[in-house]
Specification:
alpha/beta; globular; eight-stranded parallel sheet; two-stranded antiparallel ribbon; TIM Barrel; 301 residues
């Protein structure tokens, strides 16, 4: 059972965060909500596994997302599909070389064709290093620098941006009866530690992600979406990724490929709760929905 002892009042939506230069673009936080488009170059991701395993298909889809208004493109070569009732046995880890073989050709092609920053979704420093050398600007680490002790230094030396995410356990274990004594307090402490690790290793640009679906119950995920502003005092923009995830089925009852409306509702809720970046599969629809949420949030100030 989850209770909450994190009784500090929610922080504001941090519109006062300073602008951040990421790759070729300057991001002004709090002016509008940005969209990160997902490219999974994997055979076994929970939502789009196998759809973009060829370089050509992955690049074409990424170019389409950029045209639809993606502000970032996040390229991943290893699925983190959890073990559990919704996803079966879960995804198997892949080796460094296999992950590199999947993502590097896509990153190398995209940096020549789009002006939006490219993110590498990996928890391995060896993969991050090569991806950054190939032109990626962001490392999206689901472990918050926790799985690979070399990751923070790798990002810091490259002068890159990091997304540090909260996870409880590992992808194989995270959905096995997750429980918290203090949901917001424990996640806040984890992200605070990750931010501190990054800063000690010279990482000056970070985003914090509470990790929707990564070691949380459906109820936990809904509570997080309603309280994202509680992470504002960490001093960095908040990124959230609810797109198509299984917790949405608890309210909608819909299978993974029929969760567009549910994902848009979650994205809208996240914007109103203080998110700065929404990580999604459906860029065009999300941009349209959150433009209204941004207008509502702006009108309330």
């Amino acid at each position: 059972m989850t209770t909450d002892r994190h009784d500090a009042p929610p922080s504001p939506a941090t519109a006062q965060l300073p602008p951040t230069q990421i790759g070729p673009r300057l991001f002004e936080w709090g002016i509008r909500t940005y969209v990160m488009g997902i490219i999974n170059v994997t055979p076994d991701s929970f939502s789009d596994g196998g759809e973009y395993v060829s370089v050509a298909k992955a690049v074409d889809h990424a170019l389409a997302m950029a045209e639809e208004g993606a502000d970032f493109i996040d390229v991943g070569g290893e699925s983190t599909r959890p073990k559990g009732a919704a996803y079966g046995e879960g995804a198997e880890p892949v080796g460094v070389q296999e992950e590199l073989d999947r993502v590097l050709p896509v990153i190398e092609a995209l940096v020549r064709q789009v002006s939006v920053p490219i993110s590498i979704d990996t928890y391995k420093s060896a993969v991050a290093s090569r991806a950054l050398a190939a032109g990626a600007s962001i490392v999206n680490d689901i472990s918050g620098f926790g799985f690979d002790p070399e990751m923070a230094g790798t990002v810091g030396r490259a002068g890159a941006t990091a997304v540090v995410m909260h996870i409880k356990g590992t992808p194989k274990t995270m959905q096995k009866d997750p429980a918290y004594l203090d949901l917001f307090g424990e996640i806040h402490a984890f992200l605070g530690k990750a931010v501190g690790t990054g800063e000690r290793h010279g990482v000056r640009q970070m985003l914090v992600d509470p990790g929707i679906g990564f070691g949380k119950t459906a109820a936990d995920n809904y509570r997080l979406l309603s309280g994202l502003s509680r992470f504002g005092d960490l001093g960095y923009p908040v990124l959230v990724g609810p797109s198509r995830k299984s917790f949405l089925a608890s309210a909608s009852g819909l299978p993974v490929h029929d969760r567009l409306e549910a994902s848009l509702a979650a994205a809208t809720s996240a914007v109103l709760s203080g998110a700065h970046v929404i990580r999604v599969h459906d860029v065009r629809e999300t941009r349209r929905a959150i433009s209204v949420a941004d207008a509502v949030r702006g009108a309330s100030r």
